[in-house]
Every structure is written in C-alpha cells, then in structure tokens.
Amino acid sequence: MDFWFSEYHTDNVKMSIRVEKQLFSGQSDFQRIDVFDSEEFGRFLTSDGSVIFSEKDEFTYDEMIVHVPMAVHPNVKKVLVIGGGDGGVARELSYYKEIEEIDVVEPDEMFVKVCRDYFPDNARGLDDPRVKLHYRDGLRFLRGKHDEYDLIINDSTDPLGHTAGLFTKEFYGSCFKALHDDGIMVYQHGSPFFDEDEDSCRAMHRKAFRSFPISRVYQAHIPTCPSGYWLFGFASKKYHPIHDLDAKRWRERHIKTWYYTTNLHAGAFMLPKYVEDLLEEEEGRMKNL
Amino acid sequence: MDIERQKSAPVYEALERFRRQRVVPFDVPGHKRGRGNPELVQLLGEKCVGLDVNSMKPLDNLCHPISVIYDAEQLAADAFGAAHAYFMVGGTTSSVQSMVLTACKAGDKIILPRNVHKSVINALVLCGAEPVYVNPEVDAHIGIALGMELEQLRKAMDEHPDAVAVLVNNPTYYGICSDLRSIVKMAHERGMLVLADEAHGTHLYFNDKLPVSAMAAGADMAAVSMHKSGGSLTQSSLLLLGEKMNTRYVEQIINLTQTTSASYLLLSSLDISRRNLALRGRESFDKVASMAEYAREEINSIGGFYAYGKDLVNGGSIFDYDVTKLSVYTRDIGLTGIEVYDLLRDEYDIQIEFGDIGNILAYISIGDRIQDIERLVGALEDIKRLYSRPVSHLHNAEYIAPIVATTPQKAFYSRKELIPIRETAGRICGEFVMCYPPGIPILAPGEMITQEIIDYTLFAKEKGCSMQGPEDGELEKLNVLVE
Question: Is B16 left (phi over 0), alpha (psi -120 to 50) or beta?
Fold first, then answer.
C-alpha cells in the first residue's frame, strides 16, 4: 500500500511521510485533528494538515522549550504553559521538584483527549498533581493576571492559524504583566528559512524585543518542521540566557535528556549569520524609531 | 416569510445554468471571461471573472427586471417584509438618493436629523429640496449625537406642515435608534413619508431581539446596506418600499442615475446573501450579539474603558440600542478614540471601523470568531497598561440651530469666494464644516454664517476637535457664496 501524508512547507516544497494507517480524524471548534501511524516517525499528530509533533522528534522540542529557561532561572515555583494540551511540556517540567504549580491553558478539549488516547507518554505530564489544566483561551486566561508567574511557556504552534492571538503584541504585553520581576517567557519562534515564514519570524522578534529588556533567540533541529530548522524565543526581565546559566546546578539534577545538554545550551544561542542578520535588522529598526 | 421559497437564489442559479451552457461571447465585457486579461484572472480567479457578464435574456436586466432579477427582488421583499425590493449596485448612497429623489421635488421640504449621512445632503443638491433640521441631543458624557426626539420632531412638523417627508437614521453609526413607530405614526397623520437610512441596519430585519426595522415600523422607504452586516459584496445595497409607494415612479427615479451595465458579481452577492440571511440570519445575529455582549463585559472589566450598550437607553433620544455594535468610550484612560484606533492598527495589527475624539467602534459581524474578540480585548488592556495618560476633558459640543438661507442645490451651483473665517458673518456658506465630536455639521452648503457660529467653530478647533469638510483644512478661510 502506498499511503502518504503530505504537508506543504511552501507552495513549491512539500514534506511527505509514508503512513501505515490513520488512527483518528476529528473536527473540533478550533481545528481539524488527525493522528497517523508511520514507520519512520511513529505516531504523529496534525492540526489542519500541519504536523504538530511526532513520537520520533517531539523530545527535541519539549526539552528545548523547558530545560533552557529552567537551567537559567534560579527559583521557579509557578509556571504557565499556554497551549501544550499534549502534556509534553508539563512532563519535562514535572522533573523539577522546586516547581509548585503548573497551569496548562489549552482551549481545545478534543486536542487533550486525542493526546491522552494516542500519546500517553506525553499526556502523563498532565497527570502530575501540580498540573492544573484550564480549558480556556490563552489571552483570556492571562487577562487580569499580574505578577504571578516565574516562567511562561508559549507552546502554541501556529502564528497564522487559530492560535494567532498568541503571537501578538498584546500577548507579549500580557505575559510581561503576568510575570514576576525576574520572570522569563519562552515561545516558539518559527523557522526563518523559507521566505514565506521569514516575515512572521521577524515580526515575532520585533514584538518580544520591544516588550522585554532581554530578548534572545535559540535554535534546534526538528525534522518535521519546515526546513527541519526551528527557532525559540527567550524573553526575560532579568536573567540572561547564557550569562546566568548555572550548568553545574542543572547537571546535578540528573534529568535524563536526549537532546538538551548544558553545553548545547550555550551553543543553541549561536545563530547562523543570516538569522543573526535578520534579527539584528529588526532590533536596529526598533532602536531607530 | 415563505422559508421554502427563500431556499432558492434565482440570479445565482441562472448564472450557474449560463456557465454550463458555455455560450461563446460576442458581447461585452471585452475581457471575454477573463481570456483577454490574464493578470486580472490571476488576481480574482477564473470563477469570478467568468461571472462578470452582460445583461442578456437568460440573466434578465436590472434596468427593467422581468425574470430572474425580478424573482430575486420579490424574494428579497418577502425576506425583509417589504412590498417591493430593488437590488442596487451604486452603494447605499444610490439607495438613499433614490429615496430622497422619489419623495422630494425641487422646493419641497424634507425633515432630517442634523447628523445625516453626506449622501442625503448630496441628494438634496441633486433634487433641489429644502432641508429642515431637527436638533439631535448630544450625550454629555460620551459626546456622540443621539436619536431623533419626538418633541423636537413635532416642533419641526408644526413649523413646517408643508414638509413632504421625514428621514430617520435607523440606527446611527453608533447603534442608537429613535422611536421609529411613533415617528411613522406622526408623519403619516400629517401625510408625510418616512424614509429610513438603514445603512447600519440590515441585521434588524432578521432578529427580533434587535431594535425594530423600518419596514416593520411602517416606514415608506428604507435604504439598506446589505454589504455591511448582510455579507454581500461592497457597493451592493437594497432599496425597500412600503405598501403605498408607486413602484413605476420609483423605478424611473432609480434609472435616472443607475448604470445600464450592472455587475452580476454584485447582483448574485445580494441574492445569495438574502438567502443566507433568510435561512440563517436569526442564529447568526444571536451569535454576533452575544459576541458583542461578551466583548462589552470583558472591556468594561478592564477598567478605564466604557463599552456602552442597552444601559444608555432612556426612552427618548436613545429609544433603543443595537447590541451588535461595539462602541467604546476611551477618554477615561486619557486617550482619544483616534489615538486608540491608530495604536490598534500600528501596534497590534487590529483594524477597527473608526475612532473619533472620544470613541472607537469595532465592527462585529457573522465573520468574527471569539478568539479574535479576545485579541481585541487583550490589546485594549495592553494599551491601557502601556499608553494611558492623565485624563483631559474636552469641552462638550453644543448645538447651534442652522439658518437655512438657500437650498443646498442653489448653494452648490452658486459662485463662491474663499475669505477669512472671521469676516464671514452674515454670508451664506458654500461648503460643509463638520466637527468631531460629535460628527454633526456646524454648517452645510446654503446656511447663514453667524458670529455665534464663527466663535463656536474657532473655540471647538482650539479645544482640539477635528474640523473636517472645508477646502482650507486649517479653517483659516471659508468658501462663501458671492453676493
């Protein structure tokens, strides 16, 4: 049987994965969700036809969005995860004993249910007793929140789709307000490689750069993302992602990882020239205003 | 309304039949289904340019409808509870002009609220009728012009018993409704027609929780912007008639200014939108109203913003309020509506309908989603956090009753001269002077300029009101009629 899933990364580039079988298909109020089983990537989940994560490469994403800020901030007690209904981020957070509360805000109940049914290894993160799951819109949840969190992780995927509201200036502003004076926000920064994606990547940096005193970008290799190359944003009120990295402290935790190391941590912030250039161009534009 | 019949869309169906016939075109338009203009096809798509065809037997003719357009207009009339409906392709401006031109001849008087749309005054320029203005109350807090009060209207009717018609905004841009049923009763007792400008009122016909529509209230004509809340293409509109109007005369009036090459894109959009409204309008506008209500509650809970709604209703100048509108008073955070409007667009990528000195209006429609509402509310909260300033109070606009010295038509065609504004007392104005807020003309063409008006105009300008209309944007000079 020749059964392929294809996703267009641009009008002229598509990524295809040979599918063993389709496990689920459903339409929620927010998105169409499909789950497939494949030889190469194991199970993978798509939203409106775009891969959100696969069993094979989700560890990269979840580790990089959690361990980077956790190795920098010296005392995280309360964390907010926006999106993240699959539980992967909550699972990585659950390895830190000093965390007292984890709010996971996911608007789509169907998404959580599908993840519980088909990705139990991710979803077990949601069963940690410190996790409180809120079925709400992220922006709505943040409204009125003030000086409450040490760390906010924006685990939403699509700056153009139903989570567009989580890639806006009002979102970054709301996060800034909801964080303590030494709080950190990390977020998905998209991929800078294809022309189609470059604009939204630039816009994200512009917004974060204006909202937070420290705003750096780091990278990872994620095969199912467009061009296989993905960026994350690190926006912080006080701590610098490299100068304030406490590698010794993190290594003593003995958290088992497959991608993240404290050596890689510093390296992840060393960006290719073309990415550095486009980010600096945005920063320069802002300074000249 | 006959729901079974409403399920058909005669113009749309005729276009579909026509497309399948693959007729070879040796008629206009010259792009011939787009083949002669590939860039246009690239932009609009094959389907769209393929529908851009000429009037012909199977597709009827808007200038004299006898088949599918006639049927579609009958269905629209039934859906809107009107005796007749006309598809209009020159915007609601063309519907308003057709109403005024039908009701008035040169020299006739027509009673209007002072805050009418420009298209009404322009229609008076065309037909030579004389305006009689009714003083609108202005809300002291939010600074907007309100509806028509019955007492003021009765006064105008008593002073001008020879007036032939009354024109009413239903609702105003801000969603304010007058007591239309009583206005109709008063006007009909005196033999006057009632014309409703429903540029912002299409949805009133399809949800009984909303203020009364013009046809339900017994008005004689209504200009309805289907392309606003109705979902049809920009520039398409409806003209509705009540029972006692002479359809043959109205058709003659429409054809005075209407194109003989009406676009089938516009006509089919009216047909399909009418069907959609008839079949699903009620639930759609329930949803719009509940989204607007939700936004109001959330915005009011931020503090500093006042999103007003039914709480304004006072039984007189605000007889009813259209809850699908989302208007927000912004001055309590020290920002003008215009400033908030600009911030939303430039900083938050949110485009709203307009901002004036004190308010913003966000247009909520059947195309909106709740997550977009969250963005708007989130952005307003962020604007308050980042940009709020100490509150400065504007002076409140007062109403100066205009002295109509000559008709807008005579003023329009007279010779004019530009002279310093301080020297214009006693002269007749040749142009519009609008003051925002509250968006009411201080002067219209043909009106006497008095010292009081000059003083008020300069005072309002100094106080930061936006003055619009005059040729001289700085308002140092005004165009007046040569004596």
Answer: alpha
pLDDT per residue as tens digits for the range A12-58: 999 999 999 999 999 998 899 999 999 999 999 999 999 999 999 99
pLDDT above 90 (res B199)? yes
From CA B402, how far away is CA A25, in angstroms rounded?
67
Q: What CA–CA distance (Å, rounded) separates B99 from B221?
A: 7
B80-119 in b/e form (b: 16+ CB < 10 A) is: bebebbbbbbbbbbbbbbbbbbbbbeeebbbbbbbbbbeb
- A176: nearest CA partner in chain B: B382
Nearest to B378 among A107, A162, A171 (CB): A171
* Cross-chain Cβ contact B375/A169 below 8 Å: no
Residue B476: name the closest of B399, B423, B415, B402 by CA: B423
Which pLDDT score, from 0 to 100, does residue A158 have?
61
Q: What letter would DSSP give residue B397?
A: P
Sorted by where each starts, the structural domains of chain B and their CATH numbers stand as 3-279 (3.40.640.10), 282-387 (3.90.1150.10), 408-481 (3.90.100.10)
Q: What is the ipTM of this complex?
A: 0.72
**Rounded to an integer, what distance in angstroms lies between the CA atom of residue A13 and that of residue A7?**
9
Which amino acid is located at A53 in the chain? Answer: F
Residues in A touching B300 (Cβ below 8 Å):
none
> Which residue did the predictor score with more confidence, B20 or B181?
B181
Q: What is the CA radius of gyration of chain B?
A: 23
Q: Which two tokens stand for residue B319?
A: 């007889």
Q: Please state whether beta strands A149-155 and A179-190 pair in parallel, antiparallel, or not at all (unpaired).
A: parallel
Residue A180: count other Cβ atoms within 10 Å of its Cβ. 17
Q: Both tokens of residue B230?
A: 């109705």
B301 touches chain A (CB under 8 A): yes
Lowest mean per-residue pLDDT among A62-66, A147-151, B119-123: B119-123
- For residue A68, give the amino acid letter: V
Paired strand residues for B176: B321
Q: Which of B244, B464, B225 is nearest to B337 (CA)?
A: B464
With a CB cutoff of 8 Å and minimum separation 6, the contacts of A288 are none
Is the pLDDT assigned to residue B336 strictly greater than 60? yes
Q: Please, what are the domains in chain A?
A: 4-54 (2.30.140.10), 58-287 (3.40.50.150)
Q: How far apart are CA B475 and CA B460, in angstroms?
A: 11
Average pLDDT over residues A198-215: 88
Residues of A engaging B, defined by a Cβ cutoff of 8 Å: 107, 137, 139-140, 142-144, 162, 164-165, 168-171, 173-174, 177
Phi, psi of B149 (to 5 degrees): -90, 145
Q: What is the pTM of this model?
A: 0.81
- Decide the pairing of beta strands B109-113 and B165-169: parallel
Q: Is A155 labeled as catalytic in the residue annotation?
A: yes
Task: Cis check for the bond before B470: say yes or no (omega within 30 of 0).
Answer: no
Q: How many whole angstroms separate alpha carbon B225 and alpha carbon B207?
A: 16
Per the CB < 8 A criterion, the answer to whether A10 and A227 are in contact is no
Q: From the candidates A34, A86, A108, A155, give the one annotated as an active-site residue.
A: A155
Nearest one of A63, A31, A46, A3 to A225, comparing CA atoms: A46
pLDDT of res. B393: 64
Contact B379 A168 (CB under 8 A): yes
Question: Where would I find the beta strands (DSSP E) of B277-426?
Answer: 306-308, 320-321, 325-329, 354-355, 359-363, 416-420
Q: Which of A135, A168, A170, A204 has the highest number of chain B CBs within 10 A, making it the mutation to test binding with B?
A: A170
Please compute Rg for chain A using Cα positions: 18
Three-state secondary-structure class, residue A215: strand
Q: What is the pLDDT of residues B454-472, one digit of tens each?
A: 988 888 787 777 788 888 8
